[in-house]
Design brief:
28% strand; Peptide Deformylase; 166 residues; two-stranded antiparallel sheet; 29% helix; globular; alpha+beta; 7 strands
């Protein structure tokens, strides 16, 4: 199990670096990410969320064919049509908000062996992929909220966690 970093920790605001070595250590790390994500009851997890500034994330929506790893991803196209849907984040546990995102995307990335692929994605998977992709650029879902709503959510999160730490 890996530690999941939470709101306020600097690593979540930094831009991740490209992965250049595709070896057994990377495969072991990816397995640990899937395990950590499952244990936390998440459907996506990016490397910066576990303190590793590398361009990598994993997703598992529990639907057939939707358990994937994306290494060095780039979103190359987004649909004009957007949708509003509630999002949460393992790095901001217990906080949720409706976020607007494109309904469909096309992404290029590499798999565990370094082989490039391009995938057109829609629905829940497209949302999860965009959310995790943001993490690679130091962006959290709360950054997509208006300022007033973001301030309220962060204050609520801080109050909740202050009580929990006592």
């Amino acid at each position: 199990m890996l530690d999941i970093y939470t709101l306020g920790e600097e690593v979540l605001r930094e831009k991740a670096e490209k992965i250049t070595v595709f070896d057994n250590a990377l495969a072991i790390f990816v397995d640990a990410m899937f395990e950590t994500m499952a244990e936390a009851d998440g459907i996506g997890l990016a490397a910066p969320q576990v303190g590793v500034l590398k361009r990598l994330f994993v997703v598992d929506t529990h639907r057939p064919g939707e358990r994937m790893v994306f290494i060095n991803p780039e979103i190359i196209e987004t649909s004009q049509e957007q949708g509003l849907y509630e999002e949460g984040c393992l790095s901001i546990p217990g906080m949720y908000y409706d976020i607007v995102r494109p309904l469909e995307i096309t992404i290029q990335a590499q798999d565990l062996s370094g082989k490039a692929f391009v995938k057109h994605i829609a629905g829940t998977l497209a949302r999860v992929v965009q959310h995790e992709y943001d993490h690679l650029n130091g962006i959290l879902f709360i950054d997509r909220m208006d300022e007033e709503a973001r301030e309220k959510l962060v204050a609520s999160y801080n109050r909740r966690n202050k009580k929990r730490k006592k």
